[in-house]
Design a protein that fits this description.
The structure is a homohexamer of 302-residue chains. With 302 residues, the first copy, chain A, is an alpha/beta fold. In chain A, 37% of the residues lie in helices and 17% in strands. Chain A has a single domain, classed as Ureohydrolase domain (Arginase, Chain A, 3-Layer(aba) Sandwich). In chain A, β3 and β4 form a beta hairpin. The longest helix of chain A has 23 residues. The radius of gyration of chain A is 17 Å and the shape is globular. Chain A starts with a strand and ends with a helix. At the A-B interface, α6 of A face β3, α8 and α9 of B. Chains A, B, C, D, E, F: It comes from Paenibacillus montanisoli. Chains A, B, C, D, E, F: Keywords: Histidine metabolism, Hydrolase, Manganese, Metal-binding. Chains A, B, C, D, E, F: InterPro entries: Ureohydrolase, Ureohydrolase_dom_sf, Ureohydrolase_Mn_BS.
Chain lengths: 302, 302, 302, 302, 302, 302
């Protein structure tokens, strides 16, 4: 994909823009997910542009690397502010493009979606979340961290709980209080056990059908910790009994095909924890590529 | 689950007791499975009490850590003796509780079941074993090691071969002689290929139906090496082509739901071999939690 | 299998011969797959001869380790020449045996099949390939490397494109140009997504039925990079979203049962990249054992 | 030293108190040094109280673990405030004790010394720093990070540049601008090459003699990155050509013997980067123990 | 040294015999030092026979691998018995040879020296020990483990305390009680700090001069944990601040030159903990080679 | 040094040029030293330009990265040809510059020096080698590999044996035959034991004094395996008992100060074997920087 991704020149028309969001000092537990944008960048070279499973070639998508959002060393609120403004500015410069934000920890999704909503004011935004967790912690105790983005979006009125579909919560990693909050705010979710029983394709069709009826635009957020620890060792919160990468990759190809799908982020991938063969970083890049394959497939149909 | 597990106070009523059995100098190949009780203890903190897949909360189970069985540095028979006595004593103090023994290597299952049988004298005990191996080596050549527990239980008259159901033997890791011994003593087993063809849920229902007809109480023993090496790198004898953790975890939730299920041990997990993200230790803790979830579910029904 | 594999004595009748092919300086990216023959040899001791999934015992197969093909330190063409001659000579000495070649990188398959075809002149050879890639790069740019063996066999007239069935290409790892070459030369392939949708058993039956009608003898080549990176971390080109080892192992048992299956190689396994528990090396040995199980099963039927 | 360190009871007389300072989100590059206080705590058990090199026993020192300074998840200035207050409060409760602060990243030294100075108002404080770096970055660009503590202390008027002695700057890891700032503010330093040429004992005697003439109390700060990367792999900024642990350990024993030595911190040790045998964490604990040995030796002389 | 070490044929005259002693289930903490004899055997191939530092060639030493002492899986006393008998028998078959015993944990030194003493009855044996520890724990609490060999030899009357010279105790890893026992029994020792101040050559000359006056034969025992953890990561008890391998290697060359040096063992090297480049296993082999170089040098002088 | 190294523009005046030589398929044992040029390039960013030990700033040296010599995938002789031509061409374009070649394995030194000699025809070239080995294997058996460069230079008449000074051969890693060849051809060498006894500074002064009298220009070649395995784990042939990085780094600073020093290469560093903190890659970059510091110091004197 080094054949694929160009430097960004002002005024250039883009199909897709990649924005690095290297913030992870807002993570509850120590994380080097801030190194992930560069890790993803350095792994593109092991990917080509043609996918043989889907018979789709990304070679003529106009993709550019927009660089990183500028971060401050010790002022986390300023970092979150910069992220929101970067999303607004990038969209105002390239109204037609598909923004891909590469985190960073999950706290970035809150300002990213706020910026996305500001640009698309008047439109209803829904969120398709792949995550082992609800990310519905309160903001009083520790401020906006990687445990709070969905709560932050709901409480700021940016997103309604019923416009969130979370695929993948599982195991013992969500306190009962958050499940209760999710239910009270009508957040939709498919536990991983449900996904296994119904099949990921069935779940995706159902989720997208639902969102299509509810919202104008779908923002996809992938917390890589949704994956089983065997497939994503570099997601600090991944556990046994999680999603297989083949399930996630198929889901994202389907998500990309949905015309209302309009933005993507990927978060909580800490490349410092990856083993030598960089399986998690490769999966992170693959996630992005598969959404783009879905988009390309959709473009070819029209 | 640090919210969950209290210190044990004498006279206290318990639902579940966790007993560390830090013996692995009886392992045929060198093993640090003796470090596993403490490894499991230190990983609880990454688990909550509420399971979203099963919608079950363990928060009001009365669980206590009973500490470790005292071991001798160089006298292995004395260690096995202590283990049997510890099981008897713990049960006599807490007759109603569910004992969870955290090994150590598989040699501990022989004295643990002997102690369990002594306490429940007059009742028929069956064994539900998850294992890549039969563990039916003879005791003459090397004494009671991690290769011999089922043989030791059969030859001591503690358990009948036909009251054992082993789920998971696979590959090239059982000599033909042991398969023959298993057949001669009517030991029941499902090879992993059978499990895959029939589905783990089907196999579990069949196995539990059978045991329910045969025995009064079911002792569950989980040798973590039943798992594929991708899911359990810290099981010295795990191999490619093994069970997936999602299969094992579902099986144990089902096992916990069975009213005759009355004890659990987990063995042959050597935390010194785990990669940094501790996937196998997490799986070991998850195994215990899922059995307890099944029990809690069963308690809620009644 | 140390019980199984003897030293080779001249004049001895063999069922199976294992030939080390320690060449990987012909790999496009740096590889220590040349260390794999010895890695496989040292792992046999953790395998027995009896497989409980298939109820087949390899103990009375006459298997010998034929040692390594002699390699030159800096003259790669001479190495490829030696490999072809070694195959011819081994077959001329043991006409009835089943040759198993342990690479080394995939460049070795070209001279191995050439030697195999020279021995079996007049017979039509087909190839059953398990691979993430087509291996159809042109030979002009870099000579005969691990990216070119299928192209080398087609362009030398050794094998026809339509007599190749490749199971497992997937993802972004084949340039569109090679897919086009494959189609133009009627190379057959099942993408991994097709395998998942149809099931590996169905695919194997279809592939073997096709080859049986087309060719006299089937040469099986396994590039270990067909596996998912979670299952084969030591395959430099393995990626997320690849084949599971349980699928590959079942496929090879089925392949061994086919009477026209007449040779096997396994390539691109770099043991220097394996984690401590040697999951990939164990899988490499398992691959060989399972083909032999299939053969033994077939022998028992007749 | 688990024999050694007790829980802290209010009103208890202490010789030494250990304070965890788990802050590293203020680190310029991502760091899990916030995990270090607990890592050090868990390694004590591999140390006894008697040192055979110095023939000193720490068994009757009254040492207590004071727990951790409370940190906020996303408000770094509040964290630094809490650290300064914790030092003040701990000293006001235990005026006679020797405070040992376990970081965390080097940003903590600025509030720690400020608190130490507030308690000892009227006294002149000097700093004995072991560090590969000057830590004299300006505070304008990124706020108070692990690159700024000495600058922060000088610019706030807490410490005079001439009362700092830095032992160990080396290599290419200090911009010329910082060396110039150091010279302009009369910061004293011994490059590692000087240390090697003169010997660590000679340097220590000279440095302590100088400080004794200049200041009332000496605060010792050890940035573990002063060590060679072979000895401190878990110091993110350690490099080849650094100090050997034997040199550092001897230096700290000597520092402890100095009566004006009145406080210690150790920083920038990221246990997540340590290899399995935890060499850096062990060195961190050893550093603390050796200062205490020096203190104990001094107490025995009087 | 694969050029060097032959298989042992009955009746053959030997200069040196290598005996594997694969026992480590007697280790206080879990250890795979039982894998060390095979690890050392497999690393010889990376050593030649000629040492350029000493200009000594071992090529014409008659060295044989005597195989392993037979161990029992669960009966540790029987293992210790077998070790003592193996030493006696090997010496009775090859009275003139130099026995090199490759452990295993340090418990093996007690039966090895007992066997050595039985063969050399009437002669006074001294011990030159390289060790971070005294190994003087009492035998009552846990039986003969890797913490007790020197105590076992003294209390059984095999060796007098004053005939032991221990080079290398350091740090916080010997309880004061053992130092007191050492002093009461006149065990000689050089702390590592003394070694550093006097130089390893000076210490060796002094130690050998002393032993030469006291004893007829010197048995050298090397506990690899004497080394710094940077040089011996695979010694479970190695720590920072330990001996450098260059010091140990020089010491052993000097020890080999001493005519009374008559036996060697090397213990407590757990190859499962070595990093990929096997630094500790290589050091273990180097230790043996250097003693042999000293012997060869001595033979060349006479 | 990312501040330091610019892209190379044709016609630009250079002080130093860095040339990647990514060839390691000529290595006797499998090596990924071909990945080292890029590894070194990616580590510059952790180095500044100012060295505080020497008080030298490299900021105004004109250094450019000349890119990589073009290599062929399977034709090793063509690779060696390209290397020689690249050296000739680079020198003809930049006659005044100091060429730094980043290998690759040690086979590259032979064509590099041949090219260097062709450019400087009429001048006598000497070699200052830092190496655990002589690299004097014959060329008949395996062609020009990493074991042969010095032999290749002597036998081709490019260099006289007496104009080679090798600092660092040690241990059991040179066959006696090569030592004999070295002596017969008057190759000079200092064993590591001699270096330790005399001190590296003394040895360097002696070696440079000797070379200054014998030759016009000195080519420095650093085989990173000269270092102890604790300091250079990623040098496949590094061993215990090797050189410390502090010794090597000081030596190279001194070498750079010598006015006849006119070229440098660094070889046999396989970054795939480095642990996470990249100690060996950092040392490789440091080696280059220190030679440049010596050169800069020399320039400042004149």
């Amino acid at each position: 994909m080094n054949q694929l991704i160009g430097e960004h020149t002002a005024g250039q028309q883009l199909d897709v823009g990649l924005l690095g969001v290297p913030l992870s000092r807002s993570s509850i537990t120590a994380s080097a997910a801030s190194d992930n944008p560069n890790a993803i960048r350095s792994i593109w070279k092991s990917f080509g542009t043609y996918n043989i499973d889907y018979d789709v070639d990304l070679a003529d998508l106009r993709i550019a690397d927009l660089g990183d959002v500028k971060m401050h060393v010790t002022d986390i609120p300023r970092c979150h502010h910069n992220i929101e403004e970067a999303m607004v500015e990038a969209l105002s410069r390239n109204p037609a493009y598909f923004p891909v934000s590469i985190g960073g920890d999950h706290s970035i999704t809150c300002p990213l979606v706020k910026g996305f909503q500001r640009h698309h004011s008047g439109k209803t935004i829904g969120i398709l979340q792949f995550d082992a967790h609800f990310d519905l912690r309160n903001l009083q105790d520790g401020g906006p961290s990687n445990g709070t983005p969905m709560r932050g979006l709901i409480e700021s009125g940016t997103i309604e709980g019923r416009h969130i579909v979370n695929i993948g919560p599982h195991g013992y990693f969500n306190a009962y209080a958050y499940k209760k909050y999710a239910d009270e705010h009508s957040v939709n979710y498919y536990t991983l056990r449900q996904v296994r029983k119904q099949g990921i394709e069935h779940v995706m069709v159902e989720a997208l059908t639902y969102l299509r009826e509810q919202v104008d635009l779908i923002y996809v957020t992938v917390d890589i910790d949704v994956l089983d620890a065997a497939f994503a060792p570099a997601a600090p919160a991944s556990t046994p009994g999680g999603m297989w990468s083949s399930e996630l990759l198929e889901a994202l190809y389907i998500a990309g095909q949905e015309p209302r799908t309009a933005a993507l982020d990927i978060v909580c991938l800490d490349p410092a924890r990856d083993p030598r063969h960089l399986i998690t970083v490769k999966t992170g890049a693959y996630v992005i590529m598969n959404v783009l394959c879905g988009i390309k497939y959709r473009m070819q149909q029209t």
